[in-house]
């Protein structure tokens, strides 16, 4: 295996963790299975940081990585939040807001690339959003309920704020769409 392939292999690994994570939560609704799921989710989350770090360090950023890395993050986090609803650990309305924002920003990214070749890079509010979402999921699964709930609301705030920030920064693409000003 070449070192150039390692970031993409980590991204694929993160995607492969998802069905295992879901399976663990589906077959057992016990504290033990939640802890195992939290460990699996944490390991998958670490690959998010590691693949990006290695790709930048080794200067091996690829088109596959640009597409698959954010997709893997969204699939992992959205799957976890949906499972948390099923387990009664997260309110459906918060998860709905998070998922809607993720889909809206993904659509914006596609629109920007299609209309001008602009790649919408992750800004700091988006990184905080991802970090707080991942830690909220881990702490909720570990039954550290108070910390998990606080982080869930922090994640909700940064989900909304970062979505607003991305759309505000890309407002030029919608000029003339709703009348002239």
From TrEMBL:
Coiled-coil residue spans: none
Membrane topology: Multi-pass membrane protein
Descriptive protein name: CDP-diacylglycerol--glycerol-3-phosphate 3-phosphatidyltransferase
Primary localization class, coarse: membrane
UniProt subcellular location: Cell membrane
Enzymatic class: transferase
Reaction(s) catalysed (UniProt annotation): a CDP-1,2-diacyl-sn-glycerol + sn-glycerol 3-phosphate = a 1,2-diacyl-sn-glycero-3-phospho-(1'-sn-glycero-3'-phosphate) + CMP + H(+)
Stored NCBIfam families: pgsA
Pathway assigned to this chain's UniProt record: Lipid metabolism; Phospholipid metabolism; phosphatidylglycerol biosynthesis; phosphatidylglycerol from CDP-diacylglycerol: step 1/2
UniProt keyword terms in alphabetical order: Cell membrane, Lipid biosynthesis, Lipid metabolism, Membrane, Phospholipid biosynthesis, Phospholipid metabolism, Transferase, Transmembrane, Transmembrane helix
Name of encoding gene: pgsA
PANTHER family listed in its UniProt record: CDP-DIACYLGLYCEROL--GLYCEROL-3-PHOSPHATE 3-PHOSPHATIDYLTRANSFERASE 1, CHLOROPLASTIC, CDP-DIACYLGLYCEROL--GLYCEROL-3-PHOSPHATE 3-PHOSPHATIDYLTRANSFERASE-RELATED
GO term, biological process aspect, one: phosphatidylglycerol biosynthetic process
EC number(s) on file: 2.7.8.5
Family: Belongs to the CDP-alcohol phosphatidyltransferase class-I family.
Transmembrane portions of the chain: 75-99, 105-123, 135-161
GO cellular component, as recorded: plasma membrane
């Amino acid at each position: 295996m070449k070192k150039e392939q390692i970031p993409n292999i980590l991204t694929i690994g993160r995607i492969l963790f998802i069905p295992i994570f879901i399976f663990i939560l589906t077959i057992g609704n016990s504290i033990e299975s939640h802890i195992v799921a939290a460990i699996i989710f944490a390991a998958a989350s670490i690959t998010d940081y590691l693949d990006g770090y290695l790709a930048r360090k080794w200067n091996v950023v690829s088109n596959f990585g640009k597409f698959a890395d954010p997709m893997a993050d969204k699939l992992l986090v959205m799957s976890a939040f949906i499972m948390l609803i099923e387990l009664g650990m997260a309110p459906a309305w918060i998860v709905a807001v998070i998922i809607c924002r993720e889909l809206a920003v993904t659509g914006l990214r596609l629109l920007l690339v299609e209309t001008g070749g602009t790649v919408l890079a992750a800004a700091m509010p988006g990184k905080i959003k991802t970090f707080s979402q991942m830690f909220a999921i881990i702490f909720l699964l570990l039954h550290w309920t108070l910390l998990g709930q606080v982080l869930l609301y922090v994640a909700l705030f940064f989900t909304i704020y970062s979505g607003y920030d991305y759309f505000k920064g890309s407002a030029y693409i919608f000029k003339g769409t709703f009348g002239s000003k």
